Amino acid sequence: MSLNSTPSSERIQIGFFGKRNTGKSSLINAITNQELSIVSDIKGTTTDPVYKAMELLPLGPVSIIDTPGIDDEGILGILRIEKTKQVLNKVDIAILVIDSQSELSSYDNELINIFKEKNIKYIIAYNKSDILKEKRQLKNNEIYVSAKNKINIKEIKELIATIYEDSPQNIPLVKDLVASNDIVILVTPIDSAAPKGRLILPQQQVIRDLLESGAISVVVQETELKKAIETCSKKPKLVITDSQVFKKVNQDTPNDIMLTSFSILFARYKGILDYAINGIKAIETLDDNDTLLISEGCTHHRQCDDIGTVKLPNWIKKYTNKKLNFEFSSGIGFPENLSKYKMIIHCGSCMLKDREIIYRYMTAQKQNIPITNYGITIAYINGILKRSIEIFPDLYKII
Description:
Elements: E1 12-17, H1 24-32, E2 50-56, E3 60-66, H2 74-87, E4 93-99, H3 106-117, E5 121-127, E6 142-144, H4 153-165, E7 183-187, H5 201-213, E8 216-220, H6 225-231, E9 238-241, H7 246-252, E10 258-261, H8 262-270, H9 273-279, E11 291-295, H10 307-320, E12 325-329, E13 343-346, H11 354-366, E14 371-373, H12 374-381, H13 385-388, H14 393-396
Parallel strand pairs: 1-3, 1-4, 4-5, 5-6, 7-8, 7-9, 9-10, 11-12, 11-13, 13-14
Antiparallel strand pairs: 2-3
């Protein structure tokens, strides 16, 4: 990903679903005007979800997802269907592609029920309409198309844009918490886990949000924080830190300056901060031999002092003084059955769509498994959680 490209978590995710051989891949190629997906008359040509980041007018940055047929067969087919259903946890808009000469099948109705259950905006696209002799009256979210003859391709793109405009939007990351000309200090450690030559995504996005607010961003490492505060022309409004150095940053930040972390800001941004604050309380109930799941939304090369697999487990064991077991997941590999875990600690989810991270939190809630995130855990075990969320008065009372 280039420095100026839109991150996947900020792109509109558009998934194409349906039975095999309804023309999902052909319709994707027609809508994007590119040969993104392999097209064949053979059923089951698409064997895994295919993702493509692109610009799609009038929407802007999107991620197009082509999925295997929901009616796939055999042992591998069952696995492919599971992959397709996983995609449903992240899409903003679903396009159900149906052969216009056929009626809605049980597979199609199952998908529609999932769309409704997960509150996913959806469109039913009746493909191959060029050979249809008689057309029925359609609902507002239905459209006849022909991928082969490019019929109603412009119209379906406009329909997608209209449906997306009706969807709720994320709250800001930080710009609603500061005013123009406020000084905000961002603490960004440069260690072995830091990406060479660039800032990590949360830091980039917070800086961009502050620029839009007119605030003044000062970016330093944790070793320069004291000096930065001393040399500011006026008292900083807020210090935002990487969670790994929360303890030191708390010590070096005067009490009359508000303090929080990138991870906590992202929890609010994704809509799960209150759940995460409630979830941390479970750390006080841990016993010997309990198993915790530490989950990350992305996959990356792990360093010898990796925060998820090394630092967090060590900090938690030291805080609880218990003999605990830890398991780890990353990327899309979030378990469906969480019953073996006493507690889940998730990353800040900067690489996940809000819909997907909310799905993970709700999955834990339904199974009565407490779930929180890295930043809140680190703040809590260092005794500074209250301070780190005082910028959110409505949530402060939860603790």
